[in-house]
Give the backbone structure.
Amino acid sequence: MSVAAVRGRRPSTQMLEPLLPAAAVAVVLGVWQWSGSFLSPILISTPTRIAQDLVELFARGVIFSPLAESLEELVIGGSVGILAGIALGVLMGRYEVVDKVLSPFVNFLNATPLVVIIPLVIIWVGISQNARLLFIFLITLWPVLLNTLAGMRNVNRGYVDVGAAFGLSETQMLRKITLPAAVPFILAGIRISAGLAIIGMIVSEMEVSLTGLGYLLVTYGNSFFTGRLLAVVFLSSMFGVANVLLVKWIQASFFPWIAGAAADQR
Amino acid sequence: MLDIERVGHVYETPQRRVEALRDVSLSVREGEFMSFVGPSGCGKTTLLRILDGLAEPSGGRIVFNGHELRGVSRDIGFVFQDINLLPWRSVRENVEIGLEARGMPAGQRRETALEALRMVGLEDVANVPPYTLSGGMQQRVGVARALALHPKVLLMDEPFGHLDNFTRETLQIEISKLWSKLGTTIVFVTHDVDEAIFLSDRIALFQGQPGRVTRILEVDLPHPRWEFNVRGDARAIEMRESIIEHLGVRQEVLV
């Protein structure tokens, strides 16, 4: 049955439906732009102003060095955190002793709003790029760790039966059944952790030492350059969008079976 | 060849202690097709899992070719009702899983898997992901996965339970043909009496909770069965009636 038949609409309305999100965005942007004609540009600026400032940030080359600094921290701190999280999750999933020993700490630290440890991080390694990297690492670690663990705990009983019936050793079971079966959970964990890494990047650049995009945000904010400030905000959002797209791409390219198997079960 | 000696099985759930099997003894003969028939919940599948080493008997023992069975034997293959093909592997790689456990080199594994897929008529789809196959085809892959190991005994747990009637009958004929060609001993769990009569040399009837074997029947019909209408055969009809009578299905309905 088509969507039109289910919802009792005429086909013409149905054809317009995909345009609805774009229309909503256009309306909001329009109202915002219009509000600029009577609000001070310092308060909220306007979409066209922000777009101009964004172009200018690139044209004048101001953005490149902060962007490179931010990206470097994000990629190093984030990927080390994610890899360590997966590794620890696998160890905890594989060895009960490791799980028993680590789980109180993992759960405590996962529950802690980790921004509070920035002063401690600075005490440890000083005001430096290392402090920022360490903070990003610490904030990234937990979600992917817990998701990896949950993925290994939630392996379809039937897959484990197949492995047992066909004589897989424990190591083979881990490599050929448990880990592949946990991939959807791990990918979801990576997405959440990478999102936190972006937050960690900006926060540490604002709180540890002024560099990167965090530096620009603070500087433009203090100088009431609201247009430029929001241009950098927009760029930060793009990091988040890129994260979601990247994880989707990884799943579609390397794990096409996730979508395939899900569609088969419907 | 495969002797089940006074096997019992008890397991604990958080709510209660369940005795699934009590004191079951029977012998599966070499090369025969034996079915376990009975209503759901009378321990047929439990016994089959014990035969495969997936579960341990709480009492009694299994003797296979003169040796007490401990754990999973490499001469015994298993076909699951829920086939659970691994979606991250191609059809061929799914069939290779047991061969990998044995450390067979990749080239030889590939050949063996393709040969097993050929036996069930699926060599053309060797490289596709399993979730693109129909239920009947997936079940054939499940059979190929077990056959690739050249088992002496094939245990099949309601393998056609999820399939529609037409696919089911086709697969019954195919498994019957495979059995007469390969000479593998087959132990087959089903609650479909007609299916059991069509396929088996002998049928063990399971009843009750805890499950026990209450009767063993010889199916006195000539092979190959796919060449005549077994369901319409007078002996088959009589046997069907007596099985249903014995299992007490009618009494239960009347009560």
